[in-house]
What does this fold into?
Amino acid sequence: MVALKVQGRYITEAVLAEIRRLREEHPEWPRFRLSVALAERWGWRNEAGRLKDMAARTLLSKLAARGLIELPPLMGSNRRKSPREVPLALEEPSIAGTLASIEPVRLVLVDSLPLRRRAARLLEQFHYRGFSGAVGENVQYLAHDALGREVAVMVFGAAAWKLATRDQFIGWSVSQREARLGRIANQQRFLILPWVRVPHLASHLLAQATRRLSQDWRHRYGHPIWLVESFVEKDRFKSTTYKAAGWIHLGETTGRTRQDRHHQIQVPIKTVWVKALHGRFRQLFLAHDTPGDSP
It folds into this structure.
């Protein structure tokens, strides 16, 4: 068997045998326990020293999808709906007025299970794309106004693997992209809650988030972020928020997905926006050495 590269790791026959042996020795283990055990065996940790069990779980799922291993059934498929899955009602009264009338508006880092559930619940119901949870490295925020009322949700996660306009903008090689892609974050969700009508709030929150994102990412994962990207559906939004917040427009996507090998799958065309979080981001991306946790 030729070694496969999955989740950044080379999977050989010996690795597959190790996974199968763990399954045989511990048939009672659910998937999360198996992923934790593998990450511990491999010493698979991020730059902050945290175990990469979620990455291990994704790796296992990909191997199972290829038919290379068998995994225990997913837990909870027959459970009853929990109270948090009951649809939320629109908040009353609505929040309207000028930005000054609700300031200070602050971003709260989503760093606990209750907050993650709350953010996910709001996105599931009110974001036009829904939300099934963030996988891999991610930083999320809930935004509150001066009275403590929720006004927005933001999720930053892994960058797109390949993106022609962005890659041309940076000017990096394939090997440089493979080594440093983790220094880019993608704004995966941005939701101003539907009962909030406050002009300029969105650009204000974008500016707040980009000022603190790299520090929050470093605290959680042990490395900074140098650039943020976002994709905005061209026919749905005018992108004025990103213009006002100082983001750079790079172009448009092709309207195809990476699974579209025969050029038949059409998806909405999106405009591509980026925001530099470091003054020397291009030099850092193009450096020849392996990126560390600074600058």
